[in-house]
Amino acid sequence: MLRKPIVAVVGRPNVGKSTFFNRIAGSRISIVEDTPGVTRDRIYADCEWLTHQFAMIDTGGIEPDSTDIIMSQMRDQAQIAIDTADVIIFVCDGKHSYTTADEDIAQMLRRSKKPVLLVLNKIDQYKKPDHFYDYFDLGLGEPVMISSVNAMGLGDLLDDVVKMFPPHEALEEDDDTIRIALIGKPNVGKSSMVNKIIGENRVIVSDVAGTTRDAIDTPFEYKDQKYVLIDTAGIRRKSKVNESIERYSVLRTITAIERSDVCFILIDAAEGITDQDKKVAGYAHEAGKASIFVINKWDLLEKDNHTFNEFKMRVKEEFPFMMYAPVMFVSALTGQRINQLLEQAKYVSNNHALRISTGVLNDIINEAIALNQVPSDKGKRLKIYYATQVSVKPPTFVLFVNLAELAHFSYVRYLENQIRKNFNYEGTPIVFKVKARGE
């Protein structure tokens, strides 16, 4: 299995990082569609260019209130991007020569030994400005001139980006190992969960400090199955830098999700479900990862005969886009049901890789059509010629139809439910792609 390379967009404020990111994600490359019911500020996109799939992360938009913390915040942001990325796009304001802040970031990038593309944004013509050669002083090679607003030079830039991706050998991951990302808001018990899982099983292969990923990877074995726990803990909110701290937290979470097979979405039972929990769950869902809702600190809750079912129902109501994800109630403090978590992770990981033969799949689709007629609009009726599964992790199906616009979301969801009734896809999202004849 190959993991997707990660491309980070870094640079100081007001150089056009977000414009660059939105232009790339919106028009020059294909982006995975937003799923209804998942709302968030988009700072990353699953992208494809010249058959290369990768994840792009936007680290821009930080505007600290105080000038005293602007440089430290900038350094923190750039460092996280450096630690997590395979390729870094360093965006500068091409209308002017570099600043001391640009120098500071460039120094960090040089030390990282990571592939870096120095980009001069806001250049609306192919003529090199007088200060173009100043940027050679940053020690990052010849700058690439682009205009995010006019889309000038973006194709050539992406050609250079994919050439810098690590070789396949460096991206290969052991298929036998189940990688579990523990994600959730601060203080929900992620690190305690890791410690309890490792402490109870006592079959640690090695402790590897994630100096290059800004997370701690802990490989171990349990019942002859290899696992890696990816802990994303360590983010604390600060009132004055709330927005930027949230962005760092998201950055760490997304990179952990990208590297995982299964996501444990931790929720504080005592605090209940929050908007931040919904954002975190949305990231795992959109990345197509197998997921389990882990309700931690269950021991702290005063319970009666209805508490369990009521909380489980509340999870389903608050996360309607993840009805497929099982819910488990645990305590990292007491160890309640901790070992069951690993069994459940193996279970949903297997479902995540489940494949259906084309013949059986089309039998299910035809039966579903017989039970519930396809939609029509203005005299035109949807025709589904056939369906096929094109990939796993997540299970991805393509429907070949006469007119793609007639394949309403509600009917595709109906077909998904029919597939789920016939096959065990608990714990994993299912992706449908609709293609019109001739595409």
TrEMBL record:
Gene3D superfamilies: 3.30.300.20, P-loop containing nucleotide triphosphate hydrolases
Domain of life: Bacteria
Residues that hold GTP 1 according to the record: 11-18, 58-62, 121-124
One Pfam family it belongs to: MMR_HSR1
Claim: GTP-binding is one of the keywords in the record: yes
Gene Ontology molecular functions: hydrolase activity
CDD domains documented for this protein: EngA1 (cd01894), EngA2 (cd01895)
Every EngA-type G domain range: 5-169, 178-353
UniProt: GTP 2 binding residues: 184-191, 231-235, 296-299
Keyword annotations: GTP-binding, Hydrolase, Nucleotide-binding, Repeat, Ribosome biogenesis
InterPro entries: G_ENGA, GTP-bd, GTPase_Der, KH_dom-like, KH_dom-like_a/b, P-loop_NTPase, Small_GTP-bd
GTP-binding is among the record's keywords: yes
Subunit architecture: Associates with the 50S ribosomal subunit.
Purpose of the protein: GTPase that plays an essential role in the late steps of ribosome biogenesis.
Record-stated family: Belongs to the TRAFAC class TrmE-Era-EngA-EngB-Septin-like GTPase superfamily. EngA (Der) GTPase family.
Protein name in the entry: GTPase Der
